[in-house]
Amino acid sequence: xxxxxxxxxxxxxxxxxxxxxxxxxxxxxxxxxxxxxxxxxxxxxxxxxxxxxxxxxxxxxxxxxxxxxxxxxxxxxxxxxxxxxxxxxxxxxxxxxxxxxxxxxxxxxxxxxxxxxxxxxxxxxxxxxxxxxxxxxxxxxxxxxxxxxxxxxxxxxxxxxxxxxxxxxxxxxxxxxxxxxxxxxxxxxxxxxxxxxxxxxxxxxxxxxxxxxxxxxxxxxxxxxxxxxxxxxxxxxxxxxxxxxxxxxxxxxxxxxxxxxxxxxxxxxxxxxxxxxxxxxxxxxxxxxxxxxxxxxxxxxxxxxxxxxxxxxxxxxxxxxxxxxxxxxxxxxxxxxxxxxxxxxxxxxxxxxxxxxxxxxxxxxxxxxxxxxxxxxxxxxxxxxxxxxxxxxxxxxxxxxxxxxxxxxxxxxxxxxxxxxxxxxxxxxxxxxxxxxxxxxxxxxxxxxxxxxxxxxxxxxxxxxxxxxxxxxxxxxxxxxxxxxxxxxxxxxxxxxxxxxxxxxxxxxxxxxxxxxxxxxxxxxxxxxxxxxxxxxxxxxxxxxxxxxxxxxxxxxxxxxxxxxxxxxxxxxxxxxxxxxxxxxxxxxxxxxxxxxxxxxxxxxxxxxxxxxxxxxxxxxxxxxxxxxxxxxxxxxxxxxxxxxxxxxxxxxxxxxxxxxxxxxxxxxxxxxxxxx
Length: 677
Prior knowledge:
Elements: H1 3-15, E1 19-20, E2 23-32, E3 45-47, E4 52-53, E5 59-62, H2 67-84, E6 97-102, H3 106-115, E7 125-130, E8 133-138, H4 141-152, E9 155-156, E10 159-161, E11 163-167, E12 173-179, H5 184-197, E13 202-206, H6 213-218, H7 228-239, E14 244-251, H8 285-302, E15 306-310, H9 324-329, H10 331-348, E16 352-356, E17 378-382, H11 391-398, E18 402-407, H12 413-423, E19 428-431, H13 449-462, H14 472-480, E20 487-494, E21 526-530, E22 533-537, E23 541-542, E24 556-563, E25 567-574, E26 584-592, E27 597-603, E28 621-628, E29 634-643, E30 651-658, E31 665-673
Parallel strand pairs: 1-24, 5-6, 6-8, 12-13, 12-19, 13-14, 14-15, 15-16, 16-17, 17-18, 18-19
Antiparallel strand pairs: 2-20, 3-11, 4-10, 7-8, 7-11, 9-10, 20-31, 21-22, 23-31, 24-30, 25-29, 25-31, 26-27, 26-30, 28-29
């Protein structure tokens, strides 16, 4: 047969649905959430002797009356219920127990001293677990609460890991930024306990669009904002998890919120602005009609001891000054007078003031402007680039201001800033988050990398000398939506009959055709534990895409199942990145024995991403395998778990379909979750 006909015949064969009867092997632990072994944040001193404290008959008791002790008990009981489906009861007399108290109790103080684990630093604690029980002894009540967050991480199905820990934070203020919007309840109810578990002690709450009474009366309350009742509820929830609340109400600049619905046009800083950004500081109505009444509401609703008033990027968009009287005064006087006016008003309400650094401490004004500001203003220095040294932190501190560093989501940023803060003996750190004023759900699905950054930053803020947090993506997913520590039976599926590409590429004909230095050879074949799942890996069911290296592959591949399942786990990726976020690059067709079908779309970045794409923008896929190529490139393959809405019906087959775009769907493992009988 001529070579051209052979090639044509092969292409036609590959373009058709590829059905294969796979080997399906039942296993007792198809999915099993495994307790993490690293503690986050890492304690200053920790030892882990061999052994575990049995859970049978183990109870809990507190010594003292501080609210933090009851919060600690609540969190531990929640951990037991979530992870083990068990109740952590009150401790029976004469049995090993979890005992929580402080150095104020003489007996506990003596026990901590005898154990050689005492600490007197604020928020510090001693913790030990041995055959005699578990003890948490805080230097203060907050320290006892922080110790309980560490004890939670020692829980395993077999018992509490033996440990000897003495710990305290490196910095006084450890702040995480959260948002209030119409989606607040669903998100903040998960975030706040997570932030407490990570030992933050303050939340900076973006509050521009809270539906203040003042804004409602003025007609500029945005319907996407949270209600005052929700703001108060979140503040209470935060405080009951050991978190102080600092509302952030952006002023001077970023004040689009006060112009919603075309209102307050007389207060524009720039009367000609088409998208007003700043306000007129020389119009008394700016303060009497808008700012002061809202600040008063915020202090009352949040019980705030500090309010962050923004004051950043003031001249980034509008002309400032723009009006003739403002030009006559000049920027520096306008900025100082506005800041002092707000500061003095907040002080009359019993609240301190915090600002961002950039407008008041820029190179052009740092020699003159800061000297005119009250020294009790706290300054948050934001810098979102990873570095080892941030000298301006020390410079601002030497000018007499309390300083906090503010990091964002790039790896290394929080670590470098935290070390600079400790070096300058500054107040602490803020982990910022910029997911949009009405984008709360994106912290899980859309901009989840900013949630992952909470985890990394927590480690750096508590203990800057520790190594960077490993597996932060997995930890974030588990802390935000905790899973039980129990195994689910199921079955691995051997895909070898459907494989179109090997994971290795010794001859530039495997994987993506780039040779042995850039393939997936380090993802081993056979039955492997990948994250919380087990997969039988034999190669890749890679489908067609736009790239020439995969243009001859099939557009669809079918795997026969013939079994029931509660869920299906897909270990999958794409050979190349998608051109557009959320681009639909293909789908799974799940066909049932009764002839019906369901479709699971594959949106790039949301359900699937390329093996070279490390940015976890969505937590819908679980972290799966992570490793490196032979030439050192970091790569990963996530896991998508599809929940079966018809678990009682036999699944006939699963078909992977490619849209033939740049990102070509590639299935590497398929595991059925559930007994499947």
